[in-house]
Design a protein that fits this description.
The complex is a heterodimer of chains A (113) and B (115). Chain A has 113 residues and is mainly beta. Chain A has no helices and twelve strands. In chain A, strands 2, 5, 6, 10, 11 and 12 form a six-stranded mixed sheet that branches. The chains are: A mainly beta (113), B mainly beta (115).
């Protein structure tokens, strides 16, 4: 069945460090891929998405590239800030399930000044 | 409204008690989805609606769980005879269209604690 495997956390970084959070998926066909973020005390919100192979999603300095050959969608940011501290969720959605999202377990990121 | 509204934000229930969790999706959006998020886990799909019709309830963990949307806007998730394993955050989401690439907008959730 459809599933997402995400790098286990927590991840702790100093400000301006490089961030990578790994995400791989299993799905039939051509899913859409997402990164959602949950800031402390807030609801889940979309960070970025990609809908077909080789697409790159980007937002707020974060990037992720849809790699069909490795079934991956790793999240990267070149220089993290304290305000990036949050829980990050990788997710996929397929056409046959009309927008239903399959989430990874989430990765807690803490950035220290 | 500004976003997906869920109530109550917190609910403590004694084991065996029935609870009802409410979701008010964004006006003009379709398809409220319900998810269950256990501590330290990602959200897991429960069920979803298209207008008043419940199109997929394959994620409901037992027959103690059921959802309704009688007037095509507000949705209610009901849990009968709550058990400790039902303790989780229950999330509701809506979107502009029923497309796999469409962004889902989430409420802040209801944190249910069964004691």
């Amino acid at each position: 069945g459809d599933s997402v495997t995400q790098m286990e956390g927590p991840v702790t970084l100093s400000e301006e460090a490089f961030l990578t959070i790994n995400c791989t998926y299993t799905a039939t066909g051509y899913p859409s891929l997402f990164w959602y973020v949950q800031y402390p005390g807030e609801g889940l919100q979309l960070l970025l998405k990609a809908t077909k192979a080789d697409d790159k999603g980007s937002n707020k300095g974060f990037e992720a590239t849809y790699r069909k050959e490795t079934t991956s969608f790793h999240l990267e940011k070149g220089s993290v800030q304290v305000s990036d501290s949050a829980v990050y969720f990788c997710a996929l959605s397929r056409g046959s399930t009309l927008g239903r999202l399959y989430f990874g377990r989430g990765t807690q990121l803490t950035v220290w000044p | 409204g500004a976003g997906v509204s869920q109530s109550p934000r917190y609910k403590v229930a004694k084991r065996g008690q029935d609870v009802a969790l409410r979701c008010d999706p964004i006006s003009g959006h379709v398809s409220p989805f319900w998810y269950q998020q256990a501590l330290g886990q990602g959200p897991e799909f429960l069920t979803y609606f298209q207008n008043e019709a419940q199109l997929d309830k394959s994620g409901l963990p037992s027959d103690r769980f059921f959802a309704e949307r009688p007037e095509g806007s507000v949705s209610t998730l009901k849990i009968q005879r709550t058990q400790q394993e039902d303790s989780a955050v229950y999330l509701c989401a809506s979107s502009l269209a029923e497309q796999p690439s469409t962004e889902a907008f989430f409420g802040q959730g209801t944190r249910l604690t069964v004691v």
